[in-house]
Structure formats: structure tokens, C-alpha cells
Amino acid sequence: MSAGADITNLTKDEARAELARLADVLARANTAYHGADAPEISDAEFDALKRRNAAIEAAFPALKRADSPSEQVGAAPSEGFGKVTHAVAMLSLGNAFDDRDVADFDDRIRKYLGLGAEPLAYTAEPKIDGLSLSLRYENGTLVQAATRGDGAVGENVTENARTIADIPQEIAGAPAVMEIRGEVYMSHADFDALNARIDAENIEREKNGKRLQTRFANPRNAAAGSLRQLDATITRSRPLRFFAYAWGEVSDPLAETQMGAIARLADLGFVTNDLTALCDGPEALISHYRMIEERRATLGYDIDGVVYKIDRLDLQARLGFRASTPRWAVAHKFPAELAWTRLEGIDIQVGRTGALSPVARLAPVTVGGVVVSNATLHNEDYIEGRDSKGAEIRSGKDIRVGDWVQVYRAGDVIPKVADVDLSKRPEGGVPYVFPTVCPECGSPAVREEGDAVRRCTGGLICPAQAVEKLKHFVGRKTFDIEGLGAKQIEMFYEDEALPIREPSDIFTLEKRDAANLARLKNRHGWGDQSAANLFAAIQDKRRIPFVRLLFSLGIRHVGEVAAKDIALHYGEWVAMMDALDLARPAALANRAADEAEDVERRAAADEGRRARVKESRDRTIAGHDVPREAQAAWDDLIGVDGIGATVAQSLSDAMANPVERAAIDRLVAELEVTPPEAPAQESPVAGKTVVFTGTLVQMTRAEAKARAEALGAKVSGSVSGKTDLLVAGPGAGSKAKKAADLGVETIDEQAWLDLIEGL
Hints:
The chain is α+β, with helices and mostly antiparallel strands. The strands form 7 sheets. A 5-stranded mixed beta sheet has the order 2-11-10-3-9. It has a 5-stranded antiparallel beta sheet with strand order 14-13-12-15-16. Strands 5-4-7-8 form a 4-stranded antiparallel beta sheet. The termini are far apart. The model is unreliable at 33-39, 73-78 and 604-613 (pLDDT under 50).
């Protein structure tokens, strides 16, 4: 295949091979450019290769590699740098893209904290487009500097950081331990001067027959590449700067508020951003955002949005974190750039969950400095000009092949189609008909009521789902097997002699290898040591926590948080499976009732008809004659706080599907599944099932749940014979009555707080 072959004509196998080639070429180019400071290819050629890689990934999203060049900035982590485990994780931020998102951010915080209309202060600061850095000081002396890395582990760049003038080496009056975080960046003026210097040096290099240096593409890449040089003298020669705006581990609080902490950082000798402001609510935040947006071009450094944070640090602590982002902060990104181009085709890609995702094939166009040739079309409703509730979008204009469409990059990342120019629609254009069969395996593609996405029903027989499920299975938050990433999964899935087609195949790989003459060590890229290392890494993951195992299965709706809730509720894998088997008749009745309810709802033409929907549902369930113990097991599952019928139904369906259940059983037979970790401290509620009901005054329900789980309790959303304690506020209602009938201990909110006081 030609390196410049037309992307629109690539087959799936050709695309996979081309992505592998580009990953290798660009990785070597990055190493030469950033590591050795001796580029092997021109900047233009490098950019062209990256654009081609991005275009293929957009056309074949399921083939995107774990080591994708589009996910990398500068060189890959160098073995020359030591690794640093962050004492406090360096998390990313959630995004807001419009004024409504900012208001929603404020609403979520108020709801979580149980606040009404009382004033709530925020800080707003420019979001610097640079490289995140964490500086650790002990007794006032800089002892370590680390990049963010993957958020948990970064690169040790201490010697390089010492060369940056904005970073103090010694600080008087600092806490004994203090980790200061901020952004390394390069100003526009310094960036231009650096490239001018490179140009001048290249004149001399050319005269002397030496390899020419490549100019930097933009300030962000220049800063990132400069900080991550193995030779600190190179970093010293680069004009890097540093804005401080956050902190990690500190032995003593810096202040009581975000704004106070920023002022403290300035007092300690750090450079802070003078556009950081205190705002009293969403309107003030948006006003400050508009001001910064207007000044963006004159700031002298790159920013890509404004970051909002709750000002009071005690409220930040109460709000806490999601899996990868804080609840108390959000990045309000600047609007995406727009461009018009022609829609040349619509392709359907199949994801890990079987979702059929339409992808627009576009005549290439530059949007925000990036050449875009593909964009998401979301789902079939979006193509037809409707939202998920049937309301018109784009004034009801559908999207057809041949249309002239407006493209934008959401958050400057994901290309999307925004609008259609009907005046340029070609004659004879026909509406797009969304497929009802999977393009990968030919299985029916169905769309459940209330779901915006059509999904393949093929499951494990669908190659697209199988490969993506396996990639998810070995991901960082699941089994995380060293040496077995997305690239290796693709290789093994296609392997005829040592295939990995389902998760259990991973744990029989060594045994099959020993019995097979076509040994792994004899394959390209593998040897005795690499094969032995992989087998050892697999062996190391035979002991796996319940939570990771459940999340690794990629069951629809069962994400990381839901897996944790389920694991905490049942404690043991076997207990969960027994409960699901017991509850199966009730799950079947619930599924049938859902379908009957959907039929009734779709047919309902008036409120009176809608009122009979519940009656139809009740008749359907009654018709299944569900055993009492099955209904009790089902009620127990849907009563788990944060689970509910949707997650429970998905989990039950997966475990009841004969093919999927057999694959899961084969996997579990190879593993030792460990229960959730015991609470870190003894508490009077450890191991007990607690239900909160009514209105809580001194904390929100979300806070109460988080605190109870931290003390080792299981939090349920319904009262049953397994409930140990009901915490009832005003308006407790039926749950209090049921608890009394069952003899469950009931206390009020103050008694609950007294019970856990000091823990």
C-alpha cells in the first residue's frame, strides 16, 4: 500500500497497517526531534504524517491505537527520566462549552451541597495552554519536579525545572511539605525569538554542511519539548515560564479559600496570573470569561479557556472528586472554529458496546489549525434533524450525502457537523437511511425505547465488539496487564495459532503456548524474555478485586462507580452471581413489562391512556407469576443506592445470556476474585446496610452516602429485611413505615452524626 494512498479507499486491514506504520514513523521522528534535538524529517512532512494519522483514526475510530500519535505531545516518556508517583493525583478537568453548561455547573454544586439561593463564590482564571508541572518543596527547598504523566505517575524533570527563572529554589515561610502545581509555558515573544534563533543557527549549519534544526510549530509544543529534554542545558537555553495556580500535598493549609491560596503563592515568590478574579455566581463568571476572551489575542501567551473553581476550600473538600475530575472545578472552553465543506459519504462504525456510530466523510478542510476529513454525526436522530426527544434541530434540516455542511471542533478536539446549507444541496439528493443490521457481523441492530443509539445484538460474535471489549478488559482501570495493551490484543485476536477471542483466553495463553509448536517467542517482535515477561504479567493478575473484574466485563451501564456499588453490596463474586440467578424470573418479568409499557406509551394519545400504562405494566408482571424469593432478590439489587432498574437489568441480561455467561464463567475459573477492601478504620456502621430517607438538613444525601461508605457501610435505596439502620429526616414516609414493620432500627439525622462523630 502506498504511503499516500487515498484514505477513502482504505480497507479496514489496510487502515490498521497504515496506523501501525505511522505510529512507528512518528515515534522515531519525535524521539529524534525532542530527545536528540536532531530532526530526521522536516516539520512539514511531520505535520502531514500526523494529519494523515488523525484522518485515518477519524475514519476508523475502532482502530485507534493505545500509542496513537494523536494522543501524544512531543516525545513519548523517555527511559532517561525517573518516574514519580504523585502523592495527590493530578486530575484533569470537566469541560463547559456554553453559558448553559456554566449554569448547570453551579446547579450541580448547589444540589450536591444542599444549598439554596445563598451566595456562592468562585474563582475564574485563564486556562494556560502549556505543560502541567508539580513542584515539591521540603522545608522550603525544591527537592522534586514532575510532569503530570497519566495523573498518577509522572516524569522526574527536577534538574530541568531548576533552570526556569519563575520557579523558586528556596522559599522562606513555606509549610514543611508543599507541592505547588502550575503550567510551564512559552510566551509568544519568546517563541518567536526562539524560532528566529533557530533560523540564524540554520544559516551557519547549512554553510558547514550540518543537519538543520526544525522550527517549533507552536509555543505549547516548544514548552513541552523543552521541559522534557534529557540534557538540562538545552532546557536552560529555552525561554520557559511558569504560572502557579494549584497545590497537591501540603503539611499545613495555604489558606481557607482558593483566592487566598493564590495570594499566598504570590507571597511565597511564585508568579500567579493577574487575570484571576473572584466571582459571585454564573453571571459574573461568564462576564469575566467574555473579558478574557476579548483580550485573548493580546495576552502574549496561549490560553484555551477559563477555569472556574469553588472559592472556599472546605466546600472543595466536601465536593470531592469523581473518578478522574474534581466536582468543584470546570474548564469553560473557548468556542470552536467553524468551516464549511462537502459531505462525501456516511460510514457506520461499531463500538465496544455495539453502538452504531455514524461518521461523516468530508472533503478535507482546515478547522482550528487542523485538517479535518471526518466528523461525528452522533446518531440517526441527529442526521434526521431531530434531538432525542423528537424536537427539531437545525430547523429540522436533515443531513444528506453531497450536502454542504458546517464543521466545528468541540473543545478544539472532536470534529462535529453543526449545520447544512440547503441552497447548495444537489438535485436528486436522497435522505440517508440508517442501517438496521450491523455492518461488521450482519446481526440485527436494534434501538431500545428511550435510547438514542442503535446497537448490534451480535455480542461476542461481532468482531468489532469483541476486540473493543478485550481492549477495555486489559485497560489501565481494569486488568492492566503489563505488555498486553490494545496493540497486542489486536495481534492476538487475529492470530490463528494462539488466539485471544475472549478474556479467559488470556489466562490460558501460556498453557496453549507450551503445547503449540508455533510458540509466541518465535513470532515477530517476541523473544524468550518478552514472552516470559508477558506470561509472568498475566500470572500476576490472576488475583483480581471484585470491582475491577466486574468493570472489566464491559457490561452496558455497569461503569466503574456502579461496579463499586454492586461489589460493596454483595461482597463476594459468588454471592452476586447466586443473587442474579435467583432474581432472574423477576428480571424477565421486568423486561417484559418495560416492553409492554413502551408499546402503551408510544400508542397513548391522551393523558387518560397514559394513566393506564402502569396498569398494563402491573398486569404484565403479575402474568409472569414471579416467585417471592426471586422478587425479593430483584428488589434487593435495584435497591442498591445508585443502581436502579436500568443497571440491574443490563447486569442480569449479561449474566443470563448463555454465550456471555459461559465466557464469564470460563474467565472466573482462571481467577481468584478478592472482595472489596475492608474499611480503613473500625466504625460502628462497618458492614451494616444503611438507608437514608426524608430531608437531611446538615448534609446532602450524596454527602451522607459518601461518608457512610467511607466508614464501611453499605448504602441502599430501599428498606428490606437486610437493612440494619434507617436514617430518617422529615418527610420519611413509606420507608419509615416499612422499617417499623420489619423492626429495623430507625434514628434521625442528629443521632447519625453523633454515631459517626470523630470518625
